[in-house]
From TrEMBL:
<dbReference type="Pfam" id="PF00443">
    <property type="entry name" value="UCH"/>
</dbReference>
<dbReference type="GO" id="GO:0016579">
    <property type="term" value="P:protein deubiquitination"/>
</dbReference>
<dbReference type="InterPro" id="IPR050164">
    <property type="entry name" value="Peptidase_C19"/>
</dbReference>
<dbReference type="GO" id="GO:0004843">
    <property type="term" value="F:cysteine-type deubiquitinase activity"/>
</dbReference>
<feature type="domain" description="USP">
    <location>
        <begin position="1"/>
        <end position="215"/>
    </location>
</feature>
<dbReference type="InterPro" id="IPR018200">
    <property type="entry name" value="USP_CS"/>
</dbReference>
<dbReference type="GO" id="GO:0005634">
    <property type="term" value="C:nucleus"/>
</dbReference>
<dbReference type="InterPro" id="IPR001394">
    <property type="entry name" value="Peptidase_C19_UCH"/>
</dbReference>
<dbReference type="GO" id="GO:0005829">
    <property type="term" value="C:cytosol"/>
</dbReference>
<dbReference type="InterPro" id="IPR038765">
    <property type="entry name" value="Papain-like_cys_pep_sf"/>
</dbReference>
<keyword id="KW-0378">Hydrolase</keyword>
<dbReference type="InterPro" id="IPR028889">
    <property type="entry name" value="USP"/>
</dbReference>
<protein>
    <submittedName>
        <fullName>UBP16 hydrolase</fullName>
    </submittedName>
</protein>
């Protein structure tokens, strides 16, 4: 079911996405593509209840599916509720004939990401007037190997407790004003081996899963 209080703002975002100009091969570009405006035509047309009722009367009087009216439409997937913890899962495979092949391309991702260009203008848990929805990176899962075998490792940031995040999880609201990455030390974890690493090492990893916590 698709519904909106104001059709004119149905495709509006908290921040102007046209000014984003995301770099190809970045997480911003992935999000931009995932939330792009699509036109539904031909075999993808949308079933229009209003048009159907105008032509045939109430739906329960329609005896044949051929009488349903389909129309061209626009579709866009945007975030309507900014989560306390943002988990991004990158598709690391592609079809090669009848087989699947792993994608080893590096995707750039930042320490702090702004989701505002991908949130609906009336995002439910964003204070009115805010044009930023910031998240700080705290975990990365990386996979090495092929589609048939491999090894998972993780990068995790050891940091102080984020009280603002706790407020958001427990009470559904936050007074967070932080706009900088949460301070802490990064560690690389592989089975029983744990050792400290630099943030540059983390950002150069081939991320499979990304974990961000809400700042603002």
């Amino acid at each position: 079911e698709v519904s909106t209080d104001d059709p004119e703002t149905a495709f509006c975002t908290l921040a102007n996405r046209e000014e984003l100009n995301p770099e190809e091969g970045s997480i911003h570009h992935c999000l931009y593509q995932f939330t792009r405006n699509e036109t539904l035509t031909e075999t993808n047309k949308l079933l229009c209840d209003v048009c159907t009722q105008r032509r045939c009367g109430p739906k329960n009087n329609i005896k044949s599916e051929k009488k349903y009216v389909y129309t061209n439409a626009k579709k866009q997937m945007l975030i309507s509720l900014a989560p306390p913890v943002l988990t991004l899962h990158l598709k690391r495979f592609q079809h090669a004939g009848f087989n699947l092949r792993k994608v080893n391309r590096h995707i750039k991702f930042p320490e702090v990401i702004d989701l505002a260009p991908f949130c609906t203008a009336k995002c439910k848990n964003v204070a009115e007037g805010n044009t930023k929805v910031l998240y700080s990176l705290y975990g990365v899962v990386e996979h090495s190997g092929t589609m048939r075998s491999g090894h998972y490792t993780a990068y995790v940031k050891m940091r102080a407790m984020n009280n603002h995040l706790s407020d958001l999880v427990l009470r559904g609201q936050s007074q967070a004003l932080e706009t900088e990455p949460v301070k802490g030390q990064w560690f690389h974890i592989s089975d029983t081996h744990v050792h400290p690493v630099s943030v540059s090492k983390v950002l150069s990893s081939q991320a499979y899963l990304l974990f961000y916590e809400r700042l603002l």
